[in-house]
Write the structure tokens for this entry.
Amino acid sequence: MKPIFATTKNSSECLRACVASILEVPLEIVPNLGDGINNPREQLIRISKFLRVYNLDIVQYTANSNDSMDKFYFNKTGYYIGRISCYSGHQHSVVMNNNRIVHNPERGSHILLEEPSKYIIFYNLNASIVRANTIPGE
């Protein structure tokens, strides 16, 4: 994970910066999510389409009072995105690992004490497709 910061203070830009951070790519590579896309579902669809190039996709898990992260099995040691509800009603995105915030893409923002209400988890579409330079011994 390479920390990438949002260029503006809006929820879609923070989400975009989190994706760039996890992929370790420049922010400009990740599609713009703020150009008229106000629907969070549409933002996730756009990210999903973009991630296909990396043989990745995402799933969003929504936590509620009757559920816990432990009931939804995934390896928490990998990087994933936590979405935290802000007082303004928007969802702020942060990069997480092992149930901890490891990167807040908004420069100079306050410490976030609230637990995420949603998690965006990356997964490999086809484990047999890997880059040649990631195969041991080659």
